[in-house]
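Item description
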Amino acid sequence: MFESIHFESGGRRTTNASRPDVLDRLRAIVGEENVVVDPERVEPYGADAVKEKFPPEAVIFPATTAEMAAILKLANEVVFPVTARGGGVGYTGGAVPVEGGIVIGTDRMKQIIEINVDDLYITCQPGLTTYEVQQAAAEVGLMFAPDPASYKDSYIGGNIAENAGGMRTPKYGVTKHHVLGLEVVTAQGDIIRTGGRTVKNVVGFDLTGLMCGSEGMLGIITEATLKLLPMPEATSTVRANFTSMEAACKVLTKFTPHGILPMAMEVIDKFCVAAVEENFAFGLSKEAEAILLVAVDGSREEVERQARIIEQIIAENGGFDVIRARSKEEEDKLWDVRRAISPSLMKYGTLKINEDVVVPRSKVPELVARIEQIGKRHNTFVANFGHAGDGNIHVNFVVDRDDPEQIARARECVAETFQLSVELGGTISGEHGIGYVKSQYMHYAVDGPTLEIMQAIKRAFDPKGILNPGKMFV
């Protein structure tokens, strides 16, 4: 993409960012200690959860919006790639510098600028973890609803850039539904503000919504104003076993006629159950082919009423060993099973290809049944779990990373799974984004004219193509 890119003998990508004069100018902006070039220290910033490594030439740690703007003005002037990075826990390579250049780490940008209890918002820098934002809100009796599984490691700036989801999505929506306004530095180093501090705002185009899910390709977020909500008085979680994934997923639509919108509905297949039980010995039933977790929140009286109805509906639709938490501690233990899945699946192989397809909720039973068929057809192990309440299933094809044939079969499974999801009215990613990992499949979900508009927007925001190149479009 950039004429300045070349490969050194060791295969490392280098650009104009490696020039001594450029590095000196970067040090002048953020301080010498905040420009890291040592290969061993920059290496961790060249990979995310995918584990493929593309080490940057330097990692820069600004602390202010002014420093961020100065860095991007320099990058636009000299022309070298810039990749913004938060916690680095993504699954699609969105924060990986595949074209070389520099990584901008937001680790020093951790200030809470304001919490407004009357107007229900928090304004903060992007380097706070989601958990830190949640805790700050909780201290004043409020809730920040987005709750991705990586909430203790993922940064709020990255959550916005990826439009992260999480377990509370069925009731509260994804990250973009909780972003009121943003401060963003453009590729040219200009500082712009989108949205504001009000729930209603229809002045001009919705640039705030455009930035949510843009994966750092249109600008770098330096400040966010996020919507807060009153903390629910009570929560309750019900867990039950089922004789099949399909049976568990068919329950998802049964609560609506009773006027119940659960906060979370998570489904876990038998392979996930076995892996978690082997690692953590939760005492899960060996008879369970699937587990369903359903959570509600609200007033104590309403939560109690809804939990009783949920127990009844589950039992009437094939659920057995139905358990309801009677305390916060019991509730946490029920959810510990869900949180333990991802690392536990490595018992089945050394490479886990984790995809996050999404379909309309009513199509989830068919989706999981046909994904199991795809795995069998290609002789590839597959385990499914995820946010069934919003139709977002995490599909895990687990293979031996040293076996090219297994990997090739898994890639065929991935392609067929994406095609299936689109066929069922869904799409190829619910919350992980596209990055470079899914870019070759974009045409499955987005038609040609729409892609052209997206590319035109990219060119308008970033004429020289310096922001996170090599992502989304191929």
